Amino acid sequence: MGEPIDASWRAALSSYRALALLIAVASLACFDLLNWPDNRTTERWLLNLFNNAPVFFVFLSGLLLTLKRTELSTAASYGRFLARQACFVGVPYLVWLLPGLAYEYFPNGEPSANYPHLAEWPLWLQLGWYVMTGGTTANYPLWFIPMLALIYLSLPLWLALARRPALLLCVFIGALVWANMIQRPHYPNREVWWLWMYFWPGLLLGMLAALWLERGQPGHRTIVWVCAVLAVASFLWMTLVEHHAGVYRVTEWFGPERALIDFLLINKLSLAVLLLSVCLSLSATMHRVLRPWAAESYGIFLAHTYGTLAVAIALDHGLIVANLGTWLTRVVLSLAVFYGAMVITRRVFSHQANWLIGQPRGWA
Asked: Quick one: which of 300, 76, 200 has its CA closest to 84?
């Protein structure tokens, strides 16, 4: 489609980005500083509700890139797109990865201390491995960026599928079955290819959602009901029947600890569609409220783990007794402090801030 993107879609997708950020921060707030010995039930409910949040961002990437596929249809336009991403996604990624790498390096004396398999590699290759994996430093959520790079580099292949919706649907089903078979690798998140294959269904579902928007949202009510039933049923099954908490992880491909069904993946894919429906129905006032958070979402994502690290160092890596109140306090402080930090950074550095915290994010 060559027509401009509908203004209501732009507002909805901007709000989607802001709410996905909230879900991601809420998920990460369950870990690290908090100890849940007397509140395991609360922990389980929170993890099953918010964990696996990258699904929302991968879904949004597939949706946005498909809506913009005409702009990316030539080699020159695709090259310019990759150059922009390298400048305003890649460079800020390096800026915020390096302090986490330094934190790992200086206490241990060498980059290979935590990963003995690196010991025989030259120093430059060891450092390159940290950059390419992202999730192996103190700023561990940054594994998402190398995985996103794989999506961008393989983009022409996926956009070609957008011309064949039936084939795209079949590939999505196959990808979902495959992701359920391999499930997510055990922490730390360093197997970028493995993670990419696991989150691949989210990308394809986002592409299908873009085509659905372009065709006028046929069967909207039915789709919402099906996704709502899947989301609620999978959540209740994990939480009340399996007593499972959070991500289903395995130590090796098709490992013996693999669950028969990754209900958390099904849950988050269903919620990704429901969240899109919610954002499409939000009022203009709500869009205005959420827009600033969407604009600074990338910077908050890059930086907020250092807040956790600072508190951990201040507590000498002790733990805080966790309950719903301490978790909620952590979520609110993470969002408020680092949103304020992003605003100050833009005021101090002006346009140069784009190299530090990325360009302000809107719908695109």
From this structure: 76
Mean pLDDT of 240-256: 89
- For residue 350, the 8-state DSSP code is G
Distance CA(125)–CA(285), nearest Å, equals 50
- Quote the CA–CA distance of 163 and 207 in Å, as a whole number: 11
Kindly compute the dihedral angle of the four CA atoms of residues 59, 61, 67, 69, in this order, to the nearest 10 degrees. Answer: -130
Give the whole-angstrom CA distance, residue 48 versus residue 206. 22
Rounded to whole angstroms, the Cα distance separating 307 from 313 reads 10
Decide: residue 49, CB within 10 A, 0-12 exposed, 13-18 middle, 19+ buried: middle
For 348, half-sphere exposure in the C-beta direction (CA atoms, 13 angstrom radius) is 9
Confidence (pLDDT) at 1: 41
- Burial per residue of 6-24, b for 16 or more beta-carbon CB atoms within 10 angstroms, e otherwise: eeebbbbbbbbbbbbbbbb
Digit-coded pLDDT (tens) for 93-126: 999 999 998 887 766 667 777 788 888 888 889 8
User: What is the per-residue pLDDT for 205?
Assistant: 98
- Taking phi over 0 as left and psi of -120 to 50 as alpha, with beta for the rest, 259 belongs to beta
Is 363:64 a contact under the CB 8 Å cutoff? yes
Question: pLDDT digits over 217-231, tens only?
Answer: 999 999 999 999 999
pLDDT higher than 70, residue 364: no
DSSP at 252: S
How would you label 222-257 residue by residue, b for 16+ Cβ within 10 Å and e otherwise?
ebbeebeebbeebbebbbeeeebbbbbebeeeeeee
Residue pointed to by tokens 């309950």: 323
Q: CB burial class (10 A; 0-12, 13-18, 19+) of residue 44?
A: buried
CB 190 within 8 A of CB 135: yes
Paired tokens of 132: 């390419």
Please count the helices (runs of H) and the strands (runs of E) in the chain: 16, 4
Sign of CA dihedral 58, 62, 68, 69: positive
Tokens 């550095």 correspond to what residue?
A: 349
